[in-house]
Amino acid sequence: MKHSTLFDIISPIMIGPSSSHTAGAVRLGLLARNIYKNMPEKVVFKLYNSYAHTGKGHGTEKGLLAGVLGLPVDDRRIKDIFNSDIAKQIEYKFEYEDNFKRHPNAVDMVFYGKTNMFIAGDSVGAGEIAIRKINDFNVKLTGKYNTILLVYKDIPGMISQVSSLLQYHNINIASLLCDRNAKGQQASMVVSIDGNLQYDMLEALEEIPGVYFVSYIEKLGN
């Protein structure tokens, strides 16, 4: 009889030796892909600190690329992702840097394609992750909730309009985080919700005056 260890119990089912360096890397790449929405033409990964120094041995680079390509943490193709047919669909590059201001397991991902997008995140342990920045905006996305991302003109009443629309459709807000470039300029809103968002609600959010961009990001699986 095989006895389970504490690591077996608390860690995600995954391909790779480390929950933070491997599973966390896959989940960071996958969540970034969900935010970007489309298959990119090119991705530049910049790994920081522990990710930069020990990532090769733990499969961090493989995990990040596999996630961006849409593979879950238990996909066996991750082990040989660099030689896979799916990896030939995009151009990719890895860079490395030490920065004491960043998390030990931090990564920046720059997506190039129909649109360009900068996404920064951390692998915080036991496979848990957090996206910290999208383009110029500070955010916090963990992949645990379905999430609405809005970019809009910084004007009074915008938060009220969004929350009122969700309340009308009986959708509960789990968390809400706003950021802005400057007063009266562009702002962002990250709304994590309980339940699902229907397509007609996305359309309603897009029709709010002053809203430039709306994206619905579905939560990650286990």
SS strand fraction: 25-35%
Percent range of helical residues: 25-40%
Write down the Rg: 18 Å
Q: Briefly note the structural class of the backbone.
A: alpha+beta
Number of strands: 10
| Low-confidence region ranges | 1-17
Number of helices: 6
Assign the CATH architecture of the largest domain: 2-Layer Sandwich
Termini separation comes to 26 Å
The pLDDT mean sits at: 89
Q: Give the C-level CATH assignment of the largest domain.
A: Alpha Beta
In the sheet with the most strands, the strands line up as 2-1-3-4-5-6
Encode the helix/strand succession as letters: HHEHHEEEEEEHEEHE
**CATH superfamily placement of the largest domain:** D-3-phosphoglycerate dehydrogenase, domain 3
Shape: globular
- According to CATH, the fold-level topology of the largest domain is 60s Ribosomal Protein L30, Chain: A
